[in-house]
Structures are given as C-alpha cells and as structure tokens.
C-alpha cells in the first residue's frame, strides 16, 4: 500500500481526496469538529506540494437523495477558516462535471464536491460512477479510515481506474490499531455502546474469543434485555436480532469471556425528560431507556479496575441530554483515572464517543483516539477492510 507522502511530483496534479467529514450536525451547525481537525495534515501537505485538491466526502445517511439538512456547506465554511483558504463547494450534478472545468479559476486550489451520498450509485459501489469520479483527477488518496469498512464507490471501485494512495491519517490509524492488536495486554475489556445496532451486534460474536470482558450499553443493550424477557418500553430496538443474540450466548459458553449488560437503567418518558432510575422489572410501556443505572455503573467500573486494556466504542446512553450522560461520564472518569497512573492502555473510537469526550475536554487522556466507529470494530475483529484492500 503506497502512501501519498512518498510521492515526489505532486505539483499541479489534481488529487481526488476522500475524507471523513461526517461530523455531527444540528440545525446545519457543527456540534463536534474533531473529524475536521484530524484531516488538516493531509490537506496542508498537498497544499505545500502545490496540488489541486478535489475533496470527496459525505455527512449523514441521505440514502441517495439530495437533502438540504445534510449539505457539506457548514463543513466547507469551517474548513475554510481552519486552513485560511477559499474552498469552492460544487453543487452541480457530478455526472455533468469534467476535469478541465474544476479549476478554471486559477486561484482555486481546493474544491469540495457536495455530499457524495446524495448519489445512490455511491453506496452501491457502482462501477460507472466510480469510473466517472476517477476521470476528475490524476491521483486518488483515501484518508478516510472510518469509511474504509464500506464497499462504496468513492472508497473502493474508484481505485480500479486511477493511481491510488493511502493518506496520512489513514496510515496513523492503521499503525495504532496494529499496535493495539499485536501488543495487547490482558485482561482486555471492550465496551460497545451507541444506537447503531445492526452494524455492531454480529461483531460481538467474533470478539468473544479474543477478549476477557465485553460490555454492552446504549441502544445495543436493549436487544439483549428484550431477549432475556424484560420489557424495554418504547426504547430503540433492532428487529430479528434473536438468532444472533442466541449465538452470542452459545459462543460465550465455549470461551472464558464475560458479557456484561445493564442490570438497572435510567429512563424518561421523552428524550428531553429528567432521569428516573429503575430496576428492569419496573420499566413501563411508555418508558425510554436512555442510560445505564447506578448498579450497572458500579459493575462496569469494577471491571475496568481489573483490566489492563480498554477498547471503548459508543456511549452508554443518550448523552446529548445531560440527565442521561452519567453512565458515559463515569466510564470515562474511571478509564482516565487508571490512564493517569499508567495502569491501563486505552483506545477510544467512534464519532459519538469522541463528541462526548470533547464535551468534558478529555480526549488527551486516552492512549489512542480513532475517529472510526464501524471500521474500528471490524479491524479489531480481524477483518480486512474493503477500502484498505482496494489500496493494495
């Protein structure tokens, strides 16, 4: 896999740069800028080399349709301020674009294509779409590790039609995760949370043989609570997960790995409600489970206390409401406490987890921070990511 930093002649070359700019937005305002900050090195590197840059990125899940709320405009404006350089946002239909039209204004050095997921061909990894994208540049650089577990056109098939390279951040992430997986110290605990259930629940089965403890919190845990016969009220839940959960419990019996999930919870009648701690048998039909309860927090803290390595991906609750941030904050505090004493190696991944840690200014208290969520877990699982394979 060739890295762009090793290429000598990049002056005036048009570089198609796939970035992870999938930042959390609320009312078209950026809530957390970490992912933007992480990609500044590759942009500054290419600017120094006098390359022309075409940024390809996405935000959210528009499912192949134009969605004003998921425009890259606020991200474009934020990036302009950070690099102190004008970036032209191209709203024109990608299929109408030609390479020679992109930099007609000689002062333009960077252009940004509007959300690439506005095109249904992107998520289908469409070959013709990939070929058309490739015609817009001289080189392709993937610096979006967090998208590299997706077989999408601007990550995978594009590499078939244009010389392709790894970016600076992608290599940093890969090297750090290689270190984690090869020099890992036991006991290992993996905390998996958040609400993206279907993308993570199968991963758990494959992690069981490798880890000593797997802790499931957030929306993920509701599936297990429901499977165990508990009412979860109106809480988020994935359908048809029972066979997978059954396999998880069967796999646990074969390996010496403990599965920890909530034994009490914090609920509300609506998302902006105050918090009410409940035992599992007290959950009512109109309750939302929005955080873990104090008994669960204590169990998790004891597990962290006895661990040498912690991998954390996904918050424990609906942390956007401070009333339901307690579980996530207590987990963070315990890891930080052990980290400061050099008693644990800690890796954190995923956009929501990073947003949470940014709120309490704690990002620097972890050994490694990955902006990736699904790609992070897939890599730990031992899978070769499609985006990485494409670069080889």
Structure report:
The chain is of the alpha/beta class. The termini are close together. Helix content is 34%, strand content 18%. The protein has helices at 34-38, 40-48, 73-83, 99-102, 120-123, 127-134, 168-182, 201-207, 219-227, 242-254, 294-305, 326-340, 351-359, 374-380, 386-391; strands spanning 14-19, 25-26, 29-30, 52-56, 88-90, 110-113, 139-143, 164-166, 188-192, 213-216, 258-260, 264-268, 276-279, 288-292, 309-313, 345-349, 368-370. The longest helix has 15 residues, at 168-182. Strand 5 (88-90), helix 4 and strand 6 (110-113) form a beta-alpha-beta unit. The protein has two domains: 4-171, Phosphoglycerate kinase, N-terminal domain (Rossmann fold), CATH 3.40.50.1260; 184-380, Phosphoglycerate kinase, N-terminal domain (Rossmann fold). Helix 8 (201-207) packs parallel to helix 10 and helix 11 (294-305) packs parallel to helix 12. The protein has a six-stranded parallel beta sheet.
Instruction: Average the pLDDT over all residues and give the rounded result.
Output: 92
How much strand? 15-25%
Number of helices: 15
Structural shape: globular
Q: Main beta sheet, described?
A: 6 strands, parallel
Structural class: alpha/beta
Q: Percent range for helical residues?
A: 25-40%
**Any low-confidence stretches, pLDDT <50, length ≥5?**
none
CATH hierarchy, class of the largest domain? Alpha Beta
Q: Name the CATH superfamily classification of the largest domain.
A: Phosphoglycerate kinase, N-terminal domain
Number of strands: 17
Whole-angstrom Rg: 22 Å
CATH architecture of the largest domain: 3-Layer(aba) Sandwich
Oligomer: single chain
Query: How many structural units, i.e. domains?
Result: 2
Distance between the termini: 5 Å
CATH topology of the largest domain: Rossmann fold
Biggest sheet strand line-up: 5-6-4-1-7-8
